[in-house]
Amino acid sequence: MSTTATPRSSTTVTGRPEGAIDPRSPQLAAALTAVVLVAVLLLPSPANVVLLAVQAALFAVGAVRGVQATPHAWLFRTLVRPRLAPPTEWEAPEPPRFAQAVGLAFALVGLVAFLAGATVLGQVAVGFALVAALLNALFAFCLGCEVYLLVRRFIATA
Q: Which end of the chain is more exposed for a tag (fewer CB within 10 A), N or C?
């Protein structure tokens, strides 16, 4: 995955760069998010609006506090990671955090659209978020993370 953490000056006892995250955690979150977004597209109103509002709140937590502070990350740390081998690589937290902000933007557009009666616009916005979540969940390709890296490269060359 292209968003792996570069070695930092300090590491933990386990060899994990300080602040780095297990890349499988955001991948699990993306799978759970994809399930929620499919339900948003299939459920009638107002259930889809409520579910999208919950997903927007989860995106907001990930964007503001970092993906390691989300309920999905707690679920991964508590139930999934103890059953897996240690990760072979670590990921910097900034790209997934940016991806959460992008997901939040699409969820908010969808939410406003659904509430305003623009159902097709809401479905398209949710569909874009769903595609991004599926890319991460199925192929470990974080679209928002890649956009983050492109923006960083552009800023560095400007």
A: C
Distance CA 91, CA 77 (A): 15
Chain segment 50-74, per-residue pLDDT in tens = 999 999 999 999 999 999 999 999 9
Number of neighbours of residue 133 by Cβ within 10 angstroms: 26
Of 3, 157, 131, nearest in space to 67 by CA: 3
> Alpha carbon of 137 to those of 27, 47, 49, 64: distances in Å?
5, 24, 23, 22
Report field, pTM of the whole predicted structure over 0.70: yes
Tokens of 106: 């699409």
The two three-digit tokens of residue 153, written as one number: 């490269």
From the list 94, 98, 21, 111, the residue with the least C-alpha distance to 57 is 111
Instruction: Give the 3-state secondary structure of residue 4.
Output: strand
- Cα–Cα distance between 86 and 84 in angstroms, integer? 6
